[in-house]
Amino acid sequence: MNSIFSGTRLRDMIRSIRACKTAAEERGVVRKECADIRASINENDPHDRHRNLAKLMFIHMLGYPTHFGQMECLKLIASPGFPEKRIGYLGLMLLLDERQEVLMLVTNSLKQDLNHTNQYVVGLALCALGNICSAEMARDLAPEVERLIQFRDPNIRKKAALCSTRIVRKVPDLAENFINAASSLLKEKHHGVLITGVQLCYELCTINDEALEYFRKKCTEGLIKTLRDITNSAYQPEYDVAGITDPFLHIRLLKLLRVLGHGDADASDLMTDILAQVATKTESNKNAGNAVLYECVETIMAIEDTSSLRVLAINILGRFLSNRDNNIRYVALNMLMKAIAFDDQAVQRHRVTILECVKDPDASIRKRALELVSLLVNENNVKQLTKELIDYLEISDEDFKEDLSAKICSIVEKFSPEKIWYIDQMLKVLSEAGKLVKDDVWHALIVVISNASELHGYTVRALYKAVLTYSEQETLVRVAIWCIGEYGDLLVNNVGMLGIEDPITVTESDAVDVVEDAITRHNSDMTTKAMALVALLKLSSRFPSISERIKDIIVKQKGSLLLEMQQRAIEFNSIVDRHKNIRSSLVERMPVLDEATFNVRRAGSLPASVSTMAKPSVSIPNGVAAAPLVDLLDLGSDDIMAAPSSSGADFLQDLLGVDLGSSSAQSGASPGPKAGADLLMDILSIGTPSPAQNNTSSVDLLSTAGINNNPSNALDTLSSPAPPHIATSASAGGMFDLLDGLSPSPSKEATNGPAYPPIVAYESSTLKIEFTFSKPSGNPQETNVQATFINLSPDTFTDFIFQAAVPKFLQLHLDPASSNTLPASGNITQNLRVTNSQHGKKSLVMRMRIGYKLNGKDVLEEGQINNFPRGL
Amino acid sequence: KIERSERERGRKMGIRFILMVNKQGQTRLAQYYEWLTLEERRALEGEIVRKCLARNDQQQCSFVEHRNYKIVYRRYASLFFMVGVDDDENELAILEFIHLLVETMDKHFGNVCELDIMFHLEKAHFMLEEMVMNGCIVETSKANILSPIQLMDKAH
């Protein structure tokens, strides 16, 4: 290369990039260089190509787009000189991938080069093919590669072997053609050929049953001999690593033996001796030796039962675990997880050491150890292990607390022997890491508390004590104020004392202090505040002597900046103020929450229609204190909605603890409206004033058949039977809000089974996209999405195109849009079909790009949609 | 079914990428054996570098789990060598591989440093090409790895 050409030399470009002080400066240099390279490409001077591509590779490494240089690679590959070809192929592997159509153009050059007289050119072509070939290229060029496996020079044979692994992976049908060639490679002496040959056999075994059988029968003994030879071989300076001859080859051989021995007792038997020899004779004071031992242990554990070997393997892991080197301890933990499967007892013996690893300063070790501990837990040791973990939670790093507390919670939930223990442990976790636990954890805790009626007093007292100390742990505060609201009377009267408890003196005012603290604390979030407000309403009835004070606290919330809080405060104040006669029945204790339904819901098998009721723009979601409880109650689940009328009535009856069945039956209510009424009742956590009144209300509800279309109307009728003053406009408005989000779901569920609320997938100043969902019956993985594109601008969009991309576990099919012109304030629709192969495990997610012309100018908008309803 | 799972593991790639990054977190060499878009690569490199560079303590182990990768890394003077592998690759062997890579480069450049790799990026890639193909190790002898490269240098 020389520097008389226009533009800078590679060296100079690298220097000037290095000299850049800021990222912006670097971008400037790169932009200028790219412009020069483009200009130079246009001039099409073959002398510049090499240098241009070298620069592009550097620019590519820095993370800038270089697609414009792709064709240059092809030109270089097609040129006759070796240096040009060499850099051309390198560029091909770095800048292109198998998905690009440009790649197809190179097939011909590759074919020529695979047949080239210069073996180094052949090597280049093999290498490129092995790294990036597509299925099509694999088919086209397989015969050439097959032939090259028998080439005279070993350096070509080894590359051909690895190239073949890619070919058979891309086109498994071709596997048969390579079996014979692969087995011949196993007899070689050249380490490079041997290691790649073993790799090819391994690959073939994993994709083709015949190949597996063939190698098992024909090659097991030969492989064992090869392994023995290199294990016992004299010092070979070229391959020696810390006293081990070619540890890489050792490891590949052990991997292949693993596949051959697995599921075949005879083959396993054959390899027992050599595995024992490797396991006992390999030096374990250097990394290379330990790498071989580690692989050997894995093979021993995977092949068919030879118990004496397994003892050996477990002992090696025990030694690893007590090693001072963190790398060795890490792999030991990794492998012990696999060892649990066949020898739980042996792993249990190392429990103490493993627990120590959970407290290691090294985050990688801690993570592994924690995974392992959670596998070691059983009914017998759960108490001891949980205690250890919780003790550690108190002193662990902040950034580890989230993982740790999540694991503790799942262990406690899974193995808890009794409710009181469960509650105790959860309180400890919430006290230490309440900020970090997920919603479902504290929801579950509330469900359990609700079901443990004999522990209500104990729990509320324990929570009260805890929250005084750990008032910054948000979820602890939530559970505490919920319990104080529900069971405040048990708190102050020391009802249901257990033998283990010390009596405490809590005045009514103390209890209210806690709730007041939660509602006034500036960093409490909306959910907490809303829950506190409901608790206050409940306490105003439980503690009549200080209801004036409580009222004052509620009234203060009228000035809250959160609309939801304001509105509730006004409603609750009106209840406290003017409706003392119905208040006590309004704020009765929540009925026992249904554990089974909650668990099913939590496991994600039912659509969460209530919890997703809010459109993004509506402020209600779980913000209302009652909403999480609705979640817990699972009112929205389809089994209730779809159930015959009796179950709806039962549920209401359960909820209110009032016999409504007869009155409902009298009114001849059909399930639809009643379900609506259930929801409403529950959201407000109110009981009905009296059966008689409810009777009229049901009738009224029925008379307004359009409850779903016209919720406010239904609400007016619902509130009318109550004493006339209660239906203040504010409270009706509030209920309207609540129902607004809810009403669509019951109506759809009645007809279609599970239904999903529509979402606003995207919104900008000019464009809004809404998605509505439906599921074809019979295939839960599939979802039909109707996208509606709404033009919010005063001008027409032309050439409108919507593109979407999804991660691998999803499949997307796009139908054509109803039009590609979007008039001002108009809309068009397009149907999408998404298939979720991870249905039930992962939610939908989509990235999209929208392009259109607005006043003759191209507009491009992009976005990601993450707010798909759960369970699609 | 267990057998299937044992064999499924063979489908994985082995080495998925190799990165060389300096102390400031600037990438000096990147070789991917699976296709990632430019944006994905930038994001991935940023995340990994942040994670690994934060673990400065000598006592910490050389393995970091990130997304569905396991990163095996080792620091040589001012340069970090990071290799992304599948979850069940032999971590200790990868560590040994990194050492072999460094020794090979040392042999060629004579006490290799960041600048050698920057200014001879192609050479570094050619060496890697001789060592790894499609995520698998091709050759473990330094002499065999370097001979084609030296031959070409002479011819040039």
TrEMBL record, chain A:
Q: Which Pfam families match?
A: Adaptin_N, Alpha_adaptinC2
Cellular component GO terms, alphabetical? AP-1 adaptor complex
Give the UniProt subcellular location, in the record's own words.
Answer: Cytoplasmic vesicle, Clathrin-coated vesicle membrane; Golgi apparatus
Which keywords fit this entry according to its UniProt record? Cytoplasmic vesicle, Golgi apparatus, Membrane, Protein transport, Transport
**InterPro entries in the record:** Adaptor_Complx_Large_Subunit, AP1_complex_gsu, ARM-like, ARM-type_fold, Clathrin/coatomer_adapt-like_N, Clathrin_a/b/g-adaptin_app_Ig, Clathrin_app_Ig-like_sf, GAE_dom
* SUPFAM superfamilies documented for this protein: ARM repeat (SSF48371), Clathrin adaptor appendage domain (SSF49348)
The UniProt entry's GO biological process terms, in alphabetical order, are: Golgi to vacuole transport; intracellular protein transport
Q: Which residues form the signal peptide?
A: none
Broad class of the protein's primary localization: membrane
Residues forming the GAE domain are: 754-869
What topology does it adopt in the membrane? Peripheral membrane protein
Q: Which Gene3D superfamilies match?
A: 2.60.40.1230, Leucine-rich Repeat Variant
Function noted in UniProt: Subunit of clathrin-associated adaptor protein complex 1 that plays a role in protein sorting at the trans-Golgi network and early endosomes (TGN/EE). The AP complexes mediate both the recruitment of clathrin to membranes and the recognition of sorting signals within the cytosolic tails of transmembrane cargo molecules.
Give the similarity note.
Belongs to the adaptor complexes large subunit family.
What is the name of this protein?
Answer: AP-1 complex subunit gamma
The organism named in the record is: Brassica campestris (Field mustard)
Q: Upper taxonomic classification of the species?
A: Eukaryota, Viridiplantae, Streptophyta, Embryophyta, Tracheophyta
TrEMBL record, chain B:
Question: Per the similarity annotation, which family is this?
Answer: Belongs to the adaptor complexes small subunit family.
Looking at the record's lineage, which domain of life comes first? Eukaryota
Keyword terms of this UniProt record:
Membrane, Protein transport, Transport
- Which organism does this record belong to? Brassica campestris (Field mustard)
| Pfam families in UniProt | Clat_adaptor_s
Subcellular location, record wording: Endomembrane system
Q: Which GO terms describe its biological process?
A: intracellular protein transport
Q: Does the keyword Protein transport apply?
A: yes
Q: What is this protein called?
A: AP complex subunit sigma
Every copy of the AP complex mu/sigma subunit domain together lies at 15-155
